[in-house]
Model the fold of this input.
Amino acid sequence: MTPPARFVPLLIRARLAGGIAHATPWGIALDGLLASEIWHTRKAALHEAGQATPSLAEADDPEDLDLPLARCPGAGGPIWHWAATCSFPEGLPAGMPDVRYWTGRLDPRAAEHTAERLPARIPERQGRYRARNMPLLVTVTPSVTWHAVGDPDAIRRILAGIRAIGKKRSHGEGHVLSWDITPVSLTPWAAAHLHPDGTLGRPAPPGCLEGRADITDSGPGTAGLRPPYMHPGRQHLLRLPACPDSWP
Done:
């Protein structure tokens, strides 16, 4: 891969207040964060202009937003990906992640104000409005890092608006204290694919690892290749990132 001159290998660090919770075992994708922030900004502008907001989930072939990242051709054609990794925790102690809990319960007074008529009894053990007490696995770490190949100034502008990352942000998880973006002495390929410990740092087409048998990964599996990661059209058989045993 030969990125444009303004795109350089980068180390991006998010300093956290108390750790991060995420669904996938290999951390949060940087390109997903950038795409999400750009998409929310676009939706806000459309809403302010009184225009309908398109849905990426309903599109057969979702739009690839213009991110300030280089592109790795991967397997060619539609099987390409952005040159950025998933988050990697720093200073992670050995052992299991922290288990926290979140709760949810219907507020009867609020329901009275929003519904014309309520049933005599709303069951708490079943149905849409059941009470919840759910575990949440949190990686307790002072910071997480990403490698990427991109425009540092443009990335810095986008990340400046992100104050929390991961799951249950409204519950205080994943609060970001600050962002640091610095150039690093890595090859573009390494910055696009590897964690700081040299293991595979993102879902990647098998062709990205040809001739690199020394790279540790988690084997093959179906995963999203680029944002929107959950869309069926983004799912491919890929090499999955390496995950330390102490990660959730």
Notes: The mean pLDDT is 88.
